[in-house]
Amino acid sequence: MEFSALTFRLLLLFLPGLVGFYLIIDKLTVHRRFKLHAVLLYSLLHGFGSYGVYGLIVWALLATRRIGTADVVFFRAIRDTATTIDFREVALVTGVSVLLGFIVSAFISHKLLYRFARRLRITRRFGDLDAWTFLMTSPDVSAWVIVRDLEHDLMYMGYVHLFSDSGERDELFLRDVTVYRNSTAEEWYQTPGLYLARARRHLLIEFPFVRYDQSRREEWNERQEAETAP
Question: What is the greatest pairwise CA distance in the chain?
Fold first, then answer.
């Protein structure tokens, strides 16, 4: 078999992984830009996972006698190039991959792995790329903010409706905004929406409403008492 034909065969077999990872997980989650080798690796892993889930579904249907006979051609096709690819199976697994992609995206977005690990005291990480992402997505922090641009003597008070992912540009879109002169607190004007493209290192963002977590405070007190105990 020619290399080009082999490449096409592999791409076709792993199409579900590419669709599920690159078109679903990559678009729905906040992360740093993936390099090409990372995209290929994660797509490969997601593809194997999708075929595995599809295989479990087929096995369950066979065990409950809902279907008579069935076979997962993929596992034979990757070993034997003479095996004919089942295009219907590729289409079905692509559908499984999309659904699995939504599940994985929700798992990542809600940081379920980190929450579970923190409950077991395995880690203290929160799973965010940086403090910017954590603050903008944390349920403990109100979306109502005060943004101070000290260099231009401006202050914006409003509701964070959109924010940029961690990357090359820092962007905020605020709703129901009141603009003040920062040094005198003199109100200038009000606007329903304001787009702010300014490097975050030049901004001071205040969060007037932060939910108080009593358990964290108690944990801190216990740690302080343990450190100061003779």
Answer: 79
Distances (CA, A) of 95 to 55, 85, 103: 13, 17, 13
Query: Parallel, antiparallel, or unpaired: how do β-strands 144-149 and 186-197 relate?
Result: unpaired
The Cα 116–Cα 125 span in angstroms is 11
* Residues 16, 88 contacting (CB under 8 angstroms): no
What pLDDT, on a 0 to 100 scale, did the predictor assign at position 119? Answer: 80
Where b means 16+ CB within 10 Å and e means fewer, 78-114 reads eeeeeeeebeebbebbbebbeebbeebbeebeebeeb
Sheet containing 171-181: give its strands across.
186-197, 171-181, 154-163, 144-149, 203-206
Cα 104 to Cα 100: distance, rounded to the nearest angstrom? 6
Burial 166-184 (b: 16+ CB within 10 A, else e): beeebebbbeebbbbebee
Give mean pLDDT, residues 24-28.
89
Q: Which residue has the higher pLDDT, 194 or 83?
A: 194
| Contact criterion met (CB below 8 Å) for 147 and 180 | no
For residue range 43-59, list pLDDT tens digits in order: 989 998 999 999 898 88
> What are 157-179's pLDDT values in tens digits?
999 888 877 655 788 899 999 99
